[in-house]
Amino acid sequence: MEAKLIENRLLWNRFVAENPTGHICQTYEWPEHSEPEARHGSLRVGVMDGDRLVAAMLLVRSKAQGVPTPFFYSPRGPVCADPNSPALPLLITFARREARKRGAFLIRAEPNVSCDDKSWTVALKRLGFRETTHNIYMTGAWVTDISGTEQEILANMSASWRRYVRAGAKSGMTFRIAAGEADLDAFYGLLVETGKRDGFYIYPKDLFRDMLAHYSAEAAARDGTAHMVLFLGEHNGELVSALTVAVLGEWAWYLHGASSDMPEHRKLRPNHPLQWEAIKWAKAHGAKYYDWRTIPDKLEPGEDLYGVYLYKRGFGGYVWRVLPTQDLVLRPLIYWPYERVVSIRRALHERRRRRAQQRNLPALGASTTEAE
User: What is the model's pLDDT at position 31?
Assistant: First the structure.
C-alpha cells in the first residue's frame, strides 16, 4: 500500500460513491465551489493498493479567524470501510505530513460514521485525534428510507404530510427542473427572501451556479461525481418554492431550500409536494436514502432548528448521528490558544441565544419554517 496525493477524479469519486462511509462532501469537486483558499489549496489524500483506492481523505484548506496559519478540514471524512485496516494509519500519517508542510496547525475531521461505532472512536484516538465540541457541521441529520415503492414511502409519512403532498397537483402547482440563468436568478431571489425571514446566512449566487455546473449530469457521467439539480415549484406562473437535491451512489441529499412568504403561497404548502418530486427524482437516479441533513443536537422545543426537524420528521425516517468532531493537533502553541478563544466565543453566542429565547425573540440561526 502507498499513500499519495490523488489527481484522478473518476477514481476518487467512484471510491467515495461506493464506500459505506462516503459522502457528497468528500467528492473531488467539493472545494471547487468555495473560496480561492479552498479551490486552490485543498488536498486529496489517498491510499492505493495496486490500482485500487482503499482509503481517501479530502482536506479542504481553510482559515480560522485571527490565526495567520491555515488548517485543513475533512467534511464527513476520512473515507475508509474498516477503521482497523492498515490503510487508515497510512492515510493519516501522510495527511499529517502534507498538512504540516503547508503550515497547517490543525486537521479537523468529521467522519461519516455512526456515533455508536466504538471501533472508529478507538482507531482515531490511537492515531492522535481528540474529540472537540467545536463542530463545523452538526452531528445530526434526518434520513428517510426511499428504497421501497412510492406507496410505501407515502405510507411512512405523517397523515398531514401525505395530504399536503397529494394536494399539490390539485392546487394547480407545477414542478420542473431549472434550466438556465433566469431560473437561477429566480431561485436566488427567493432564497434571499427566505434567508431574511428565517435569519440564516445566504451564500453568494456564484456558489449555486458553480455547484450546479460541478455536479451536472454531464459531470456525473464523466467524472463519477454527484448529480445535482435545482427543482422549482410554481403556481400561476409564479415561483413559490425551490430546492436543490443531489445523488451520489445510494444516497441523496437535500441541500438548499427556499419558499415564498406571501400568505396565498404559504396556504398552498408548496414545500411538501416539491420535496416529493425531489424524492421521486432521487429514487429514479438510484438513491435508497434521502438525507435531509441538519437537525438539532437536542430534539426539544426551543432548540435551534427544532421547527425544521419537525418538518423533516413528517416525511418519515430516522435520526442519523455521526461521531463528534475530531481534531488532530499539528502545532500545539497555535491550537490551544485558538481552542480557548473559540470556546469563549461560542459560550457568549449561546448566552445571547438563550436570552433572546427568554424574551421570545428570534434567535440567530433559528428557523421554525419549512425551508432551511
Answer: 97
Taking domain 2-139+321-358, whether its CATH number is 3.40.630.30 is answered by yes
2-139+321-358 and 141-320 share one CATH topology? yes
pTM for the structure as a whole? 0.92
Inform me whether the pLDDT recorded for 282 exceeds 60: yes
- Structural contact between residues 148 and 154, judged by C-beta atoms closer than 8 angstroms: no
N- to C-terminal Cα separation, the chain: 43
Dist CA 173 CA 156 (whole Å):
23
User: Do 201 and 303 meet the contact criterion of CB atoms below 8 Å apart?
Assistant: no
The 10s digit of each residue's pLDDT in 342-362 is 999 888 877 886 787 677 554
Q: What is the mean pLDDT of the chain?
A: 93
| Per-residue confidence (pLDDT) for residue 363, from 0 to 100 | 43
Backbone angles phi, psi at 73, to 5 degrees: -120, 130
Domain boundaries, the chain: 2-139+321-358, 141-320
- Laid out side by side, the sheet with 325-329 consists of 2-5, 43-49, 52-62, 71-76, 106-111, 325-329, 130-132
**Contact indicator for 115, 25 with CB cutoff of 8 Å:** no
CB of 368 closer than 8 Å to CB of 307: yes
CATH 3.40.50.720 fits 141-320, yes or no: no
CA nearest 34: which of 207, 223, 244?
A: 207
Given a cut of 60, whether residue 109 has pLDDT beyond it is yes
Q: What is the enclosing helix (H) or strand (E) of 75?
A: strand 71-76
Torsional class of 201: left (φ above 0), alpha (ψ -120 to 50), beta (otherwise): beta
